[in-house]
Prior knowledge:
The chain is about 40% helix and about 15% strand.
Amino acid sequence: MLIDTHCHLDAAEFDSDRAAVAARARAAGVAQIVIPAVARDNFEVVRELAEREPGCVFASGIHPMYTPQAQEQDLTALDAELARGGQIAVGEIGLDYFVDGLDGPRQAWFFAEQLKLARAHGLPVLLHARRAQDAILKQLRRIRVAGGIAHAFNGSRQQADEFVRLGFALGFGGAMTYPRALRIRELAASLPWEAIVLETDAPDIAPEFAHGQRNEPAHLARIAQVLADLRGVSVDEVAERTARTARRVLPRLPSTP
């Protein structure tokens, strides 16, 4: 059973064929899809989508790229949404030091406040950590949460080991399929199974075999095959091992999709 631990199925790119996209994923063996929110105005959107599509679950959070328009009262709304229940995590939250024009201190404040909410509600977190791994690790040491996933991981082995020490798994997806992505492929091949989960980040980060196209969760099956080839195991073993890790770091994932 494959689990896509990070897929923006609510994105506008899927508006014309969302149900068909979800059906293709199920047909490809993707039994569960985690849909993270990115802002207050789509908390309800991801909840309703997860309730409507078989095998889908959701997380609630404010993405760092949406912090410019976020307001302090959005955190109050997030707290209320988490109290309502149903989420498997707080996310997508974190820091982005790649996109120009984002206010670093503002991002950091929203990130820290959401970590506190995750801790208060006993939830793991789904982390966005683009060129910000060390800054995120510093916050995680200061505000301890119930682990989670460092999505689309692209850091060093030392950083990977520190995330794992703090109770996190690392998300591997389309970037791993590119032969020139040497560091990501080396991590995917050598990290312990307990550190690895699969994801697509659809509609973004299309794999090499779909370069320039819209990414979608059905691609996870071929992404899993790439990981199997890198590790010299069967794709069935990849599915079983990564699903086991996903359930460990996201314990509210339903046991039966």
